[in-house]
Structures are given as C-alpha cells and as structure tokens.
Amino acid sequence: MGILQNLWLLITFSISAIILITDPKEPIASSGTNPVSGLFSSSSKGQKFITNFNWFLIALFFILTICLNYLAV
C-alpha cells in the first residue's frame, strides 16, 4: 500500500469515528430553565470546530478518492 492509500484509509476511519462519537444534539450548558430553548440555540465553538473539521476530512477524502482512481488507471 502506498502513502496515499494509507492516508485514505486513515481519513476513512477518522470520519467514521467522528460521526459515531459526536452527538449533534448534545445539550448546551447555558440553555436556561426552558428545555425548548435548548433545541433552538446555536452550537458551541467546540461543536462547530468538530463539524468543520469533519467536513474538511470529507472533502479531503473525496479528493484523495479521485486522485487514487486517476493514478490506478
């Protein structure tokens, strides 16, 4: 296996792990006394970072898939 294939495999497992570990509907500590307000509040900075990082990994996965397919031909 080449370096690109190993990187592709690592990104695949990273995306899967991030999706399985994170909970997109995790309650926010500052939601107050009304439980309904927690549903409409924005996500924390940490959650936004994880989401953006996951989208970056997905884009990188897509690019690597195209590169590996092109190199295999």
Automatic annotation (TrEMBL):
Q: In its UniProt record, which GO terms are filed under biological process?
A: protein secretion
Instruction: Supply the alphabetized keyword list.
Output: Chloroplast, Membrane, Plastid, Protein transport, Translocation, Transmembrane, Transmembrane helix, Transport
Query: Superkingdom of the source?
Result: Eukaryota
Q: How does it sit in the membrane?
A: Multi-pass membrane protein
- The reply on keyword Transport is yes
| Secretion signal span | none
Q: Which GO terms describe its cellular component?
A: membrane
Entry's localization field: Membrane
Coiled-coil regions listed in the entry: none
Q: Is Chloroplast among the key words of this record? A: yes
A Gene Ontology molecular-function term?
A: protein-transporting ATPase activity
Q: What is its main location?
A: membrane
Q: Which NCBIfam families match?
A: secG
What family does the entry list? Answer: Belongs to the SecG family.
| Function of the protein | Involved in protein export. Participates in an early event of protein translocation across the chloroplast thylakoid membrane.
Stated name of the protein: Probable protein-export membrane protein SecG
Say which species the protein is native to. Answer: uncultured prymnesiophyte C19847
Organism lineage reads as: Eukaryota, Haptista, Haptophyta, environmental samples
